[in-house]
Structures are given as C-alpha cells and as structure tokens.
Amino acid sequence: MAFHDLERKKIENLLNAFIEKIRPAPHIRSELDFSFDITGQSIELVEIRPLWGNKSIIHRHAFAKATFVKAQHVLWR
Fold first, then answer.
1. Whole-structure pTM value
2. Which of 56, 39, 42, 46 has its CA nearest to residue 23?
3. How far apart are CA 34 and CA 13, in angstroms?
C-alpha cells in the first residue's frame, strides 16, 4: 500500500531538504547529482550521472533504499 497524500508530501519535504544538503555545487551537477524516487512504500536515493562514453545518455542509479511496512511499523533497509 502506498503512502497517503499527507504522508507522501511530508516525506518529500524531508527528502528534498536532505538532498539539498548533499548535492554537489551547481557547476558540477551536470556531471553528478542526487535525487530520490518514491515507489509504493519504498524510498530510493538516486545518483544521476551521464554515461561515460556518451554524455547525452543520463543514468539514474539507486544507492540506498528503505521500505516501510505499515502493518508492522517496521523500516527495512
């Protein structure tokens, strides 16, 4: 079951604040940036980089994931 609208908005606000703290300087962001994805009850932190040999192809690679199981009030990492 996905997060409710209010929960999702609160989570997005917290994640946006966190991502802003860890993002590289603006002049580097075309080469490396960070973001997040929310799918269902899972949150993934994502690294965004252009492909090494072809900078027109952008890759999003998840480097951390957390899933909240509401029925058990457990956070899986």
1. 0.81
2. 46
3. 15
Alpha-carbon dihedral sign for residues 54, 22, 28, 39: positive
Buried b (16+ CB within 10 A) or exposed e, 8-22: eeeeeeebeeeeeee
Domain parsing of the chain, residue ranges = 5-76
The set of residues, in sequence order, having a beta carbon less than 8 Å from that of 72 and lying 6+ positions away, is none
pLDDT tens string, the chain, 77 residues long: the values are 678 899 899 999 999 999 999 999 999 999 999 999 999 989 999 999 999 999 999 999 999 999 988 776 655 55
